[in-house]
Each structure stands twice: as structure tokens, then as C-alpha cells.
Amino acid sequence: MERSSSGWFGWRRKKKARGGGAGGGEEEEEDQHKVVVDGSEIRELVEDREVFGMLVDSKFRQLDADGHGRLSVQELRPAVADIGAALGLPAEGASPNTDHICSEVVSELTHGTSQGEVSKAEFQEALSDILLGMAAGLKRDPLVILRMDGEDLRDFVASSRYEPSAAAIFSQVGSEGVPLRQCLLAALEQLSVDHGVPPASDAWAVENILEPALQQLPADQLEQPASRDDFFRQLKELLGAVADRLQEQPVIVAHTENTYDGSGIKRLLANKFELDKLLDSVWRGVTADHKNKASKECLIAALDKMADAASLPYYGAVKQVDAVVDDAIKLAKVGDGKTVDEAEFKKLLTDTLGAVMQQLNSNPVFVSTSTVVHEPLSGSALFSSQQQGAK
Q1: What gap in Å lies between CA 292 and CA 344, rounded to an integer?
Q2: Which of 134, 49, 129, 149 is nearest to 90 (CA)?
Q3: Which PROSITE patterns match (predicted)?
Q4: Fewer CB within 10 Å: C terminus or N terminus of the chain?
Q5: pLDDT tens digits for range 85-106
């Protein structure tokens, strides 16, 4: 897996202040390490009907190899992945919200078709729904794309934060007889992108950055029991080696942070007009098979339809929130096959949301994810290529 150190990050930058010259003034310095993907470029693309139509035509012709004018469901996912990458989205798996939307729309699109195939018109409509759904999810929960080249890690090691952080880590992982290697590996797992360390949960980062850096330390010392002083010294050496590796081969990381505390549900429940409108929409979307039944599966599907408005993750995306939802459904005493009418179904949904809100308000769920991704192309490049083709 190759990592590029130029390209996308050359045209979208954040600003950071630095000390200036005479008079104590400050000037702005460009920093290419951080980009926020909020879905705005995706919306711009879909709303430009001419450019979006050309994109659909091009992608459909590329995928419809036999020219019979229809695509299989297996061909939809790579099409969405390619376009998503061109718009600045990381690979599938980096954002549970956008992954869920893609899976749901593809499933609904091919539901009931005899051979699981779609026409170009259906493909364009589905692609629009998928991308707009991704844009909505990213607007609510933006992805921060970080280019890690060792600079932030060196700043951390040289800062006043290093010793307190190292001491806190050693107090948790260091004990009598524990080898230094084990302590250092645990430290890499606890340090995060905020410190400039790529995620130790990622196999590529471990194989290409973290493990080679660890191998630069004296092998005989790594197997000895770790003292506090040895740990401090060798951790600093290790992080320096990681920074060197990152300088040689920068890593692109998609990072998200979310706190689910029930505040979104509270706002929704307080707005009766919006709540009633949403409940009506959800009830209309309930399939005929589930129209008079309040099964757990049906209720979860309905809650997913309300997730954006309630600032909740989709079921299956965050296991801690899933547990809260499961408990709330138990409190509602939902049983498979229980017959309910429209009013009872809406009340069940409202009561379940209220129970979820109370639990999250008492015990908020904080979720942080970091995923190593391929460097995507810029949305601007995509627009440019499509517009040039129109001339």
C-alpha cells in the first residue's frame, strides 16, 4: 500500500499562527497536516446536474462491460467507492455512518428485482441517494483527515507533555518483571493521533512504521524487565524512530471523535412538529410485513431512520450505544409478533428514544476512531476533469 506525500493536501490547508517580527505581530503559516471532510463537496457535485450526469454516464459505461445496459449489485459498491475516493472519502470501514448508508441504499435498490440488476437511471438515482446520505452523515460527524509525517510526534516528545504522559502510561503498564518490549507496545497502543502516533490497531501501520521502529532498539534490552527510567528513555528513542519512519513514508489517517450524550434526542423530543413529521415518515416506511408487528428488528430499523435527527449512530456502528438501545427496547417490553396500531408504534418509538436519552445523559458514550487510508484525490480535481470533458 503506497503512501503519497503530496497531491490532495497541497490545495486544502489550515492556518496556524507563529510569532512575527517587530512589534510582536503574527503572520500566518500554512500547515498541510489536517483537512476536515464535511460533505460539502459531495453535495456540490450531486447538485450540479450536468457534471453529475456526466460522471454517472462515464462510470456506468466503465462498469457495464458487456454493454447490455444494466449493472449487478456487485458492481455498485466499487462504483460508489471510486467516486467516494475522488471526493475525499477514506476507504470503506473508516466511517460507520457513511458505510451504513451505502449498504442500506444498495440493498433497497436491488430489493425485489429478479436478477439483482439496475438500469442507468436507477443507478443515477441510487448514487445520488448514497452520496447525499454520506454528505448528511459527514455534515453531522465530519472526518478529520490527518497527514502524519513525524512533525507532530517530534513536537510532542520535545514538549512538556511528554514526561507526564509517559509517567501515566508506565503507571498503568509497568509492573515487576514485565519486559520493556511489552511496556513499549502498550505505550504505542495508548498514544494516539493527538500525539502524532499512527493507530497501533492498523496492521499496515504496525508492519511498516511501528514494528520497524521498535527493531531499531537494542534487542537485549527489550527483553529485560522495564524500570521507570529505562522506559522513559527507550520510549523517547522509539518515538523518535517512529517519527523518522513517518518522515520517510507519511501516513494518511481518517479520524473521528463523537460524544453521544442524548442531547440530540432531547432536542428532537422537544420539537413536537419535527418529531410528529418524522414519526409519520417512519411509519409510512414500515414494510407491510411489519406494519402491525412491533418486533425488535422492526423497531431498530425505525430508530435508524431517526438516527440523524436524534444525533445517534446507526445500530451496529457503536457497540456501547447498541447496548443502550437494547436496554431501552427491553424497557419498552417489545416482543416479537406483538400487534400494534400506528399510534402504539409511534409511542413505542418515542418511549424508546426517551429511555435511550436518559441512559446517555447519565453515562455519555465517547467514541474515537482512527483508520489508515489511501490518499484520496481532491473533489476539485474531479470537478475539473468532468467540466473539461463538457467543453
Answers
A1: 10
A2: 134
A3: EF_HAND_2
A4: C
A5: 655 555 556 555 556 655 665 5
